[in-house]
Write a structure and sequence with these properties.
Rossmann fold; 305 residues; 11 helices; six-stranded mixed sheet; 11 strands
Length: 305
């Protein structure tokens, strides 16, 4: 009887020990692991061709549009730094013999300051296996931050805002300057969403080359039935005859007139319709926010397939 009890006790101890040594799977950790694995698989290893387009209209004027939490031009600078750092991280994650990536910046129209234009030209950067050292790669975000800070300071000090011809850039330059075969072509537009340039004011029926708060009011798109009217009367930007199926567009900084509860939706609908009509397959349109919140948006948009 004693022997039987002793054997049972030993078996019980062995069973308890074996159970205690068996690690239980944490369901949360398992899900997180699967998500991280999937994200890694979805990260694009394609060659990047990034173009940043700046809207230097009076939207960046801290006197006209003050924002105590962070001025809008400072937010732009944060977005630009995030784009440059994402570019750096992408290159550093590739094998050296696979590196063939580009980044550049445009201001449309070009500044009247020739010295500033020379600095903008230095932002056109290309890496391949011949120059992709760690030190050179990590200079990219620093160079973009310093020169772009100079661009914004000059524009604000000059205080002569003539608008930004973003539509003209899409019409005349984007296809030639920002699209290359064998690349993931990404165009990042920093704008409040309104489009206006004094030398580009065209209206054909309910299609326009511009969009301003005054235009939205005059079109009576500032009421609750704006969406129905927008569709039935075919409001929108005048399309440009470009087929941009090989371009991905990220629009950052949408800043609607705070007096109208419908303004943000109207602006986004204009952009959505316009980009869709140009056959842009992948795009996002994001409201102005602090760079810390937009950083992941930028990273995911550029690096995810």
């Amino acid at each position: 009887m004693k022997t039987h009890t002793f054997i049972s006790l030993i078996v019980g101890i062995i069973f308890i020990c074996s159970c205690s040594n068996k690690k239980e799977k944490d369901p949360v950790a398992e899900v997180s692991k699967k998500i991280n694995t999937q994200q890694h698989k979805n990260k694009s290893k394609e060659n990047l061709n990034i173009s940043i387009v700046l809207d230097l209209s009076d939207r960046i004027n801290p006197k006209k549009f003050p924002e105590p939490s962070m001025e809008y031009y400072q937010r732009d600078l944060g977005y630009i730094e995030s784009v440059a750092k994402t570019f750096e991280n992408h290159i550093r994650g590739k094998r050296t013999n696979k590196i063939k990536d580009k980044i550049q910046l445009f201001v449309e129209p070009a500044p009247s300051d020739s010295e500033l234009n020379d600095k903008i030209a230095t932002l056109k950067t290309q890496f391949d296996k011949t120059n992709a050292t760690k030190d050179e790669i990590l200079k990219t975000s620093k160079k973009y931050t310093e020169i772009c800070n100079n661009i914004y300071e000059t524009a604000i000090t000059d205080d002569k805002y003539v608008g930004s011809d973003i539509r003209g850039f899409f019409k005349r330059k984007l296809q030639d300057y920002c699209v290359e075969e064998g690349y993931k072509n990404v165009v990042v537009v920093l704008t409040d969403g309104y489009i206006y340039h004094k030398n580009s004011i065209i209206k054909q029926q309910n299609r326009t080359s511009y969009l301003t708060p005054e235009a939205i009011r005059s079109f009576k798109l500032n009421t609750g039935n704006w969406k129905e009217k927008f569709k039935t009367k075919d409001y929108g930007f005048l399309p440009v005859n470009q087929s941009l199926e090989n371009v991905e567009v990220l629009v950052l900084g949408i800043n609607p007139n705070k007096k109208s509860p419908y303004e943000e939706d109207v602006i986004k609908e204009y952009w959505k319709k316009w980009l869709t009509e140009m056959n842009v397959k992948k795009f996002q349109i994001k409201r102005a926010d602090l760079p810390i919140h937009i950083n992941d948006v930028i990273n995911d948009f550029i690096l995810t397939k």
